[in-house]
Design goal:
3-stranded mixed sheet, alpha+beta, about 80 residues, about 30% helix, YefM-like fold, single chain
Length: about 80
């Protein structure tokens, strides 16, 4: 595992990203203390796939959904 100071990481970011993509783990340090870790993306957890239409038929939108709000509600939003 390679440790790099923040200044060197900014200077050599492209090289460090290439090294991480190749599987190397890099610690980024500030004043000698590790503050971040650069790891290959395949080590990151995958996001679950979202399924479109999952709630189809379970929600209803009121007919007056886009009607103007009452003055009292508008005043509350505007702090009056």
């Amino acid at each position: 595992m390679q440790t790099v100071n923040i200044h060197a990481a900014k200077t050599h970011l492209s090289r460090l990203v290439d090294a991480a993509a190749a599987g190397e783990e890099i610690l980024i340090a500030r004043a000698g203390r590790p503050v971040a870790r650069l790891v290959p993306l395949q080590d990151a957890p995958e996001r679950p796939h979202r399924r479109l239409g999952r709630l189809a038929g379970q929600l209803t939108v009121p007919v007056d959904f886009d009607a103007p709000l009452p003055d009292a509600v508008l005043d509350a939003f505007e702090g009056r």
